[in-house]
Every structure is written in C-alpha cells, then in structure tokens.
Amino acid sequence: MNIEFVLKQGGKSLTKERKDVFAFMETRHMFTAQDIMDSFTDISRASVFRTLGLFVSLGIIRRIPFSEKGEVYELNDIQHHHEHMKCNICQTILSFDSHWICKSIFQAAKDKGFTIQEHSISVRGTCLNCSIS
Q: What is the pTM of this model?
C-alpha cells in the first residue's frame, strides 16, 4: 500500500509520525494503540489515537471486533482479506481465509442494492490447544 498516495487522496499529508506509525504497522499482523505507544515514546497518546482514527477512516487499517481490552487493528489488505477467530479460554486470535464468505456477503448486498463500506466477522470458540487441556 502506498501510504503517501492514500493520504493525499484523503486530503491529508504524510507527516513523519504517520510514516513511522505506518511502517510499524507493516511489521505486525495485529496491533493495539498501546503497542504503538510502547514503540514510539516520542509520539503522544493523543497523536496515536488521532492517527488510528484517520487510518481507519481512510481504509488504511481496520478494527478487529475483539475489543475486551481495547481496540485491535490490522492493515486493511484487500489482496489478502481474512477474518478472525478468538479462543474464549486463552484469548488467542487466529486468522482464516474468508474469500468464499465475503463473496456471498457482497453478492447478498448487491442483490439488495446495498453498498458495503466495511464488514467484519467475529468467531468465538475454543482453540485446539485449550480443547485438549
């Protein structure tokens, strides 16, 4: 993803903070605001939350719907879209390919004349490790 292009399309500029935060996000599958604050002690808490809000609104990142301990985010990668399952016991979040599910969702929306701007699927249960224990 070309962060400078996406920001410019949204009428925003590429600041050093935004560039640094985006570079950090590219190294993680999932992350929280706290992860960013822990990695960048020179960026204020308010700036981190403003940047996350901006990136969500521009479609750069998406929220993962497991938020008992704050928001969890990931880069919004249209090429490799996937969904998540969370173990109720150990809290592990696992990813799974959702291409066929998404295809059905988008077809249902199209049939109803509905335009999808964002979607997420959250699956909760027990992972294999916790099932064995």
A: 0.74
